[in-house]
Amino acid sequence: MELAEIIKEKIVKEGPISFHDFMEMALYYPELGYYTSAKDKIGRTGDYYTSASLTPVFGALIGRQLEEMWHLLEKNKFTVVEYGAGTGSLCNDILNSLKSNPELYANLNYCIIEKSPSMRDKQKKLLNKKVSWFDSLQDIPEITGCILSNELVDNFSVHRVQMEDELKEVFVDYKNGFVELFKPAPAILKNYLTELKIELSKGFRTEINLEATEWMKEIALCLRKGYVMTIDYGYPSSELYCEQRRNGTLTCYNKHRINNQPYIHIGEQDITSHVNFSALCLWGFKHGLEYCGFTDQRNFLSSLGFRDYLKKTEKPGDYYRNFKREISLTYTLLEDMGRKFKILIQRKETPQYRLSGLKWN
Question: What is the pLDDT of residues 157-166, one digit of tens each?
Answer without folding.
Answer: 999 999 999 9
